[in-house]
Amino acid sequence: MKGTRTPLIAGNWKMNKTIADAENFIQALLPRVSSADGVEVAICPPFTALSAMVDSTRGSRVQVFAQTMHYAPQGAFTGEVSAVMLSELDLHGVILGHSERRELFNETDKALAQKVAGALEAGLTPIVCVGETEEERERGDTERKLRHQIREDLSKVAEQDLHRVVIAYEPIWAIGTGKVATADQAQDAAAFIRALVGDRSSEQSRAVRVLYGGSVKPENAAELLALVDVDGALVGGASLEAESFAAIVAAAG
Questions:
Q1: Phi, psi at residue 16, to the nearest 5°?
Q2: Burial of 15 from C-beta contacts in 10 A (0-12 / 13-18 / 19+)
Q3: Number of domains the chain is built from
Q4: Secondary structure, 3-state, 36-69
Q5: What is the residue-wise DSSP string for 137-170?
Q6: Strand, coil or helix: what is 8?
Q7: Per-residue pLDDT reduced to its tens digit, 186-224
Q8: What distances in angstroms separate CA 227 from CA 2, 135, 230, 233, one per listed residue?
Q9: Enzyme catalytic residues
Q10: How far apart are CA 126 and CA 90, in angstroms?
Q11: Which pairs from 133-141 meet CB under 8 Å and 24+ separation?
Q12: For 82, which DSSP code?
């Protein structure tokens, strides 16, 4: 069944790269991924570089995603950007609920449920991030945490639209730490997430893509991407260099 799901490799640049940096990166990346068949490739630049990257990737296989958005289409929300505004830029999608957004900017599952629905309504593909802390894993609370996040974050998504959501399992203890979940840990979590979607629709659960994120590098990408329930990767630090990001894309092809 995995063969029917196209893997997605998305690079989350976080708060890195000026427009000039982004242009240099994309010119180095495009020839490296031009022949990567059977895999979708996305970059997730900061807001300031989105428009430039849409222009520079037009006609290529590289998609452009934003890193966050507000759930309202417009309003008195100083400093925020809406799904409608992102859609106007011809973006393909948006990351939602990254652990850094949850922890540093107090994003709640209630707000994320509205964001996911808003992204879908605007024609954007949401990459919804879920995952447990090291303390939660040690307490045996991984499944409880994932169950809560999946149920809350997807609560406003119609059953027939579940396959339009991409879910990224990112164990918080593995983000930017150099630690990485073992293959068994990653597979167990991805399978559990798929089963949670299956509680609403078994058909949709077979179609929904589940990514792994957390210190993904060229050295460990092939093992993680071969897992039966892992359909790609949300890449952090290794996505900032064209060569390493392209190597991860190649591992998914």
A1: -135, 150
A2: exposed
A3: 1
A4: CCCCEEEEECCHHHHHHHHHHHCCCCEEEEECCC
A5: HHTT-HHHHHHHHHHHHTTTS-GGGGGG-EEEE-
A6: strand
A7: 999 999 999 999 999 999 999 999 999 988 999 999 999
A8: 9, 25, 5, 11
A9: 98, 170
A10: 14
A11: 133/172, 133/173, 134/172, 134/173, 137/171, 137/173
A12: B
For residue 101, give its domain range: 2-6+13-39+47-252
**Domain at 103, CATH number:** 3.20.20.70
pLDDT tens per residue, range 66-96: 999 999 999 999 999 999 999 999 999 999 9
pTM for the predicted model, two decimal places = 0.96
Collapsing DSSP to helix, strand or coil, 11 comes out as strand
pLDDT at 116: 98
Q: What is the dihedral of CA 73, 76, 80, 83, to 10 degrees?
A: 0
What are the tokens at 25? 């990166």
C-alpha 24 chain-centroid distance: 23
